[in-house]
Design a protein that fits this description.
globular; alpha+beta; single chain
């Protein structure tokens, strides 16, 4: 039994390695499974009232920011990554919505490696973990979801995480206000493809 499980794991890893070596097209190989994951697990998460409230509140604060102000905040965040004193990062990570995202990540059994919400200008509104930057507005995860008012999810490339040695892909989706149907932000889920059913 144990040898069979080890063989299955080896075959699965070899399959991921082959997909990874295929480059950008590899993300499409897992699209059907990722789409099913969005429908079965991710969409229900994004209906959480605490997450919707966090996006509404942050959009009220950040909606009027200039591009220069956004970029200055992003620089501030980047300078705090790895620092002992990190007031901006801590203000996001200590928010109740971030605590909800951490609980969701932890209860996923390793399927979700990270989860974060982006507001209407592309800034982090909540995050399960520290992200490398604060402003996601210049990246496809926000541009192909919220900015495009997209109804369909955006799947990132298959990547090997250096720290965990796990093959993963980011799944990003538009978040809509349940009362109006309007896009109010986006969410990105890091998905451990080796645990994808």
């Amino acid at each position: 039994m144990r040898r069979h499980a080890s063989l299955s794991a080896a075959v699965a890893i070899a399959g991921f390695a082959t997909a990874f070596s295929a480059g950008a097209a590899a993300a499409n190989e897992f699209a059907p499974q990722l789409e099913a994951l969005v429908q079965s697990q991710i969409e229900p998460i994004l209906e959480d009232a605490a997450l919707i409230a966090a996006l509404r509140e942050q959009n009220a604060r950040t909606g009027g920011l200039s591009q220069a102000e956004i970029e200055a905040m992003d620089q501030d965040w980047r300078s705090q990554v790895g620092a002992d004193n990190r007031p901006l990062i801590d203000s996001v990570l200590s928010a109740p919505a971030s605590e909800r995202l951490r609980a969701m990540r932890e209860s996923s059994g390793g399927l979700f490696t990270e989860v974060f919400l982006m507001d209407g200008v592309g800034l982090n509104a909540a995050a399960s973990d520290v992200t490398s930057d604060y402003w996601q507005g210049d990246e496809a995860k926000w541009q192909e979801t919220y900015a495009a008012n997209a109804e369909t999810p955006y799947f990132g490339d298959v990547e090997l995480d250096d720290s965990t040695q796990v093959f993963q892909s980011q799944v990003s989706v538009t978040i809509r206000d349940p009362e109006t149907g309007d896009a109010i932000g986006a969410a990105t889920f890091g998905v451990n493809l080796e645990l994808l059913q």
